[in-house]
Amino acid sequence: RIKAPAVTSPVRPLSPALVSLGIFVVGLALTGGAVLGARTALQAEVQARFNAQADRLQAELDRRMVVVEHVLKGTLATVMVSPGMTSREFRTYIIEREIGRYFPGVRGVGVVETVMPRDLPRFVARQRAEGDPEFRVRPASQRGALRIVRFAEPAEANWSLVGQDLRADPVRHEAVQQAPRSGRTVLSGLVSLDAAGREKGWMVLVPERVAEGQPARLVFAALSVAQVMENITQALGPWAEFQLYDGEAIDAGKLLFDSASLGPRAEAGDPATRYTRQSYLFLGDRLLTLRVAGR
To answer: pLDDT per residue over 119-140, tens digit each?
Structure first.
């Protein structure tokens, strides 16, 4: 018996429409994968750039604080070895340091003397004899040890400080009390730097080390917030905004500086808010919190 050959069905070619659909689906998948990969790579690149810029910002703030502290320690050493220093000699010393040129944001440098009420007439007479015939203490007080600004240079920008008893300002008073107690550099809260109260800033104080109970001198730098931070903000460009807080928490009541005050703030939902970082800075024994948001 002869076996009949098997009959196979002819292969039907795919329709052009189906072929086109398959090519489209495969192409779409490849394109989607490529886009996803590119997006992931871009996000990693942006994150890396943000981290690098945040590191740069923190390093620059650290550097500026350290520089100011070194300037004050050098000034204190000079004052200590020159107990008879006059206002004219102090002015010459500050002019030669070229503070405004080499230390952006330092509006002035000065000396605070601790004066007991019984010694106040002699202190005022000495200041007037040294070339400041109109020197007077403001406000006048006869209670407790006075913290009087003896020198403040450049005089043009700091004349309103000379003769002030810093106890009259609660923020400054806290700083001038804390510095001798701790024996370390102290950063004050925000204070007014001009007589009109328009310019805001900080006082950085370095105390003289003396035996307990002895009156201590302090040297200080008046830092303009706008000048210290504006240069940094300009150098970084519009890529980010940052805030500096007093203490270890982000607390609106302890905000020392907000870069948005110098330009527009990123709105909620803006891509600028995708990257944020919180870190810490120290000035003496003062802890500051730095928050950076990428633009």
So the answer is: 999 999 999 988 888 899 988 7
Matching residue, tokens 């709105």: 267
Assign residue 41 a region: left if phi > 0, alpha if psi is -120 to 50, beta otherwise?
alpha
Residue 197 token pair:
């109260």
pLDDT of residue 233 exceeding 90, the answer is no
- Indicate whether this model's pTM tops 0.85: no
- Assess contact for 159 and 171: CB atoms under 8 A: no
* Residues, the chain: 295
Residues 143, 117 contacting (CB under 8 angstroms): yes
Q: Residue 14: what pLDDT?
A: 54
Tokens of 83: 């107990």
Across 215-248, b (16+ Cβ under 10 Å) vs e yields ebbbbbbbbbbbebbbebbeebeeebbbbbbbee
Q: Which residues are bridge partners to 152 per DSSP?
A: 110
Q: Report the DSSP beta bridge partners of residue 278.
A: 291
State whether the Cα torsion 276-280-281-287 is positive or negative: positive
User: Residue 113: pLDDT band by 50, 70, 90 thresholds?
Assistant: very high
> What average pLDDT score do residues 280-287 get?
74
CA-wise closest residue to 292 among 223, 228, 222, 245: 245
Residues 6+ apart with CB under 8 A from 47: 275
Rg of the chain over Cα atoms, rounded to whole angstroms, equals: 32
